[in-house]
Amino acid sequence: MAKIFKVHAGHYWSDGGAFLGVLPYAIWGKKIQTDEKRRRRLDLNLLLIVSGDRRILIDTGVGNRLSDKQEEIYRPSEFALPAALAELGFRDRDITDVIMTHLHFDHAGGIITSFGTQDVLTFPKAKYWIQKDEWDMAKAPDTTNQAAYAFEHQLALLEHHGKLELIEGELEIAEGVTCVKTGGHSVGSQFVQIDSPEGFYIYAGDIIPTSFHISPAVTSAYDVCRSDTVAGKKLIYDRLKAKSGILLLNHDTTFWELPISDLKV
User: First and final CA of the chain: distance in angstroms?
Assistant: First the structure.
C-alpha cells in the first residue's frame, strides 16, 4: 500500500508576472504578496511515496549550489530537503527512486549537493526517472530553451555516476505509481499519479503549480507550448474526476491537497 508524504524543501522567489503568464496583474496583484521587485514566494513542496521497499521522491528542489547571480535573482531559502526527509525518518541513502517532473533549476538543483570543494549525488542509491525528450533537451537545448537548463552544473554528475532511466510517454514505475508525459511547461514535462487504497492523487508539477493556475486558460510565461499545457491540465482533471481524486500543488504557499470536487473545472 502506497503512502504519501509532503516534503517541504524550502522556497524561492520568482517574477510574479512571468510565473502567472497570461493572468493580468490587475487580477492577481492585490491577492498575492510580492516584494519590491514584484517577485512572489514559491514553496518547494516535494512528494515522497513509500510503497513496499520503495522510497520514491518526486523532484529535488533548488539544492545548495546556485550561483551568486541566481541567489540574487531568486532569493532562495537554505536547502531544506535533507532535514525535511530526516523529520520523516529517512536518510539520503533510503531513497530508491527519484522522479523528475522536469529539469529546470528549481526542480533539478537538488540532484547534486555541494560539500565545500566536493559535489556528490544527493541520493546515491536512487534510480532517476526522466522523460527522454526532457533529458535530450537539457543536454542540448535549442535557442528557446537555452536559458532553462544547466546540464554541466546540475546533470553531468548524474549522467556519469547515477542510475538513469529515460522513459517515453506513460509508464508505471511501481505498483500504483505512474509517470505521464504532457509536455507544455517543458518539452518533457510529466506528472505523477498515485493510485492506492488510501486515495488517488496527481502531483502535477509545473503544469498546475499553484491555485492560480487551476484554470485551464492560465499558463506560465515559462511554458514552451501553451496548448500542450492546456491539454495536460484537461488530462489531469479527467483522471481526477474519474477517481474522485486529489490534486497536489508543488509551488503553492497556502494549498497542498485540493480535492477535484472543490475545483470548478
Answer: 30
